[in-house]
Structures are given as structure tokens and as C-alpha cells.
Amino acid sequence: MSKEAQNILKVLESETTLRYRIIPVEDDDGVNCILVNNRLIFQQNRAAVKFTALQPNGLELWTVDVSDLLKVHFNS
User: Fold this and answer.
1) How many domains does the chain have?
2) pLDDT band at 53 (very low <50, low <70, confident <90, very high)
3) pTM
4) How far apart are CA 9 and CA 28, in angstroms?
5) SS3 of residue 45 by DSSP
6) This protein's superkingdom (predicted)?
7) Which candidate, 61, 58, 41, 37, places its Cα nearest to that of 49?
8) In degrees rounded to 5, what are phi and psi of residue 39?
């Protein structure tokens, strides 16, 4: 985990009253995901293996082809 990621984690831990389950990843870009209605949505080209630890908690893992999202953004 990069130094910047460690600093952000320290801030989050000091300012929150909630508990988080941290999933370390090799690169900072690999953490881009969003949780919607018990569905963890993340980039298709990222390793889903890191997120499988969350499946026993009832989460569904969904991947998104980012190129499709970029088409929507640039065509609107």
C-alpha cells in the first residue's frame, strides 16, 4: 500500500465511527469500486480475487467494462 493510501486510511480510521474491512491491493488504482444495494461494482480488468473475501457477507461482485462507461460519458 502506498504512503498516500496509508495516510488516507489513517484519516478515515480517525474520523469514522463505523468499522471497515480493508482489502489491500498492490496499486492505488485497483481500489476504485462502488457499493450499490449489496453489489460491489468495479473495473473488469481488475483482479476480482481481492474482493471475493466480501462474498460471504452477501455481496454480489459485478464488473464493468470501463470503455462502455467512457462511451456514455463522451456521447452525452
Assistant:
1) 1
2) confident
3) 0.50
4) 12
5) coil
6) Eukaryota
7) 61
8) -120, 120
